[in-house]
Amino acid sequence: MHELSITEHLLDHCIREAEAQNASRIRTIRLCIGQLRGIVPDCIQLYLDMLSEGTIAEGAQIEAESLPVKVLCRDCGMEGEITPHHLSCPHCGGLSLKILSGKEFYIKSMEVYINGNKSTASDHGLE
Amino acid sequence: MEIKVLHQIMDWNEDVSEDVKTELASHNICMINVMGSPGGGKTSLITSLIGILRDRFRIGVIEGDIAGQVDADRIAELGIPTVQLNTDGACHIEAMSIQHILPELPLEDLDLIFVENIGNLVCPAEFRIGESLRITLLSIPEGDDKVEKYPLMFTDTDCLVLNKYDMLPYFDFDEERVCSNYGTVNPGAPLFRVSSRSGDGIKELAAFIAEKAEAAGKAGA
Ligand SMILES: Nc1nc2c(ncn2[C@@H]2O[C@H](COP(=O)(O)OP(=O)(O)OP(=O)(O)O)[C@@H](O)[C@H]2O)c(=O)[nH]1
Ligand SMILES: [Mg+2]
Ligand SMILES: [Zn+2]
């Protein structure tokens, strides 16, 4: 549910960014989402489909890259990756972890069509 | 063609959250964000805490609710300035909503504001609201697997309250599992075992809050 207001702001930002680059259409929006976050890409897609109607982002696809949870173990001093379902050091099983990453949530890039003479090969795939 | 963006999506909320924080700091107010599942005991906990803390602090409450104002009425009956924040179906409170509703509280006359967030373990964790202290409440009947299922709610909090601790004998609740998971993802953060019903453990939590409130709210005084 919280994806609704997030998608509103996401769409806003993407359109502004695309227009600044003279894009006529947004084809793909690439997101990076850390595994600790409770953000569901399918929900964003759903709201995007709804909100983007009639804008240059209409029909845009969300591609989400899921980023791992990286930790530093305070017991053995090693770095490693965990999942929320196994909350212990992958090296020594230690239970005191400093979370280094896994809370990311950002727009990485967009695939867009550019107006006029700058049009690229991918432009022909539009219709 | 591809264009690089690298934009932090939550900035729109974080920026307002910082503004709210600054505004509250100018009034020496400490705001506490109380988060947890529906029916976990957020209103009961806030009520019990008010009972202990009202001698020392001037307290106000912002009651988040999807609709209605049952909880706000419960708090207002205590003679505490209370405002109701209806989110119209939204599952969380955003910093912007707090910014809009703050002027409805007598900020000059407050030291402490409790915000009861919307009952939900996922969404509120994603949104800072200008608070100086976050409390995550988990009640015994909800089960012992919640840290694994909703990690952000437990990593991004300043303390965990195990509420309805009086119910422990009646549930298969592996306390060690919760404590160990919580300690793993949020090392050093305190945990309080509380019964809002019997009052057990409330004093310790109130002392922790009082200490934070004096540090945060009274920094300039
Ligand atoms: N046994 C027991 N019951 C409790 C405790 N704390 C709250 N309750 C009961 O749990 C129920 C829900 O408590 P509330 O304080 O309304 O919970 P809430 O989190 O504010 O609920 P919502 O605002 O609806 O999400 C009530 O019937 C309370 O009496 C506790 O420590 N022990
Ligand atoms: Mg309540
Ligand atoms: Zn280790």
Could you explain how this protein is built, in words?
The complex is a heterodimer of chains A (127) and B (221). Chain A is α+β, with helices and mostly antiparallel strands and 127 residues long. Chain A has a domain of 86 residues: 2-Layer Sandwich (hypothetical protein PF0899 fold). Chain A has a 3-stranded mixed sheet with strand order 2-1-6. A 3-stranded antiparallel sheet of chain A has the order 4-3-5, with no helix packed on it. In chain A, helix 1 crosses helix 2. The longest helix of chain A has 18 residues. The C terminus of chain A is likely disordered. Chain B is of the alpha/beta class and 221 residues long. Chain B has one domain: P-loop containing nucleotide triphosphate hydrolases (Rossmann fold, 3-Layer(aba) Sandwich), CATH 3.40.50. Helices cover 35% and strands 21% of the residues of chain B. Chain B has a 7-stranded parallel sheet with strand order 4-3-5-2-6-7-8, with helices on both faces. In chain B, helix 1 runs parallel beside helix 4 and helix 2 packs across helix 8. Chain B is globular and about 55 Å long. At the A-B interface, helix 1, strand 5 and strand 6 of A face strand 1, helix 5, helix 6 and helix 7 of B. Strand 6 of chain A pairs antiparallel with strand 1 of chain B. The site of zinc ion (ZN) has 8 residues of chain A, from loops.
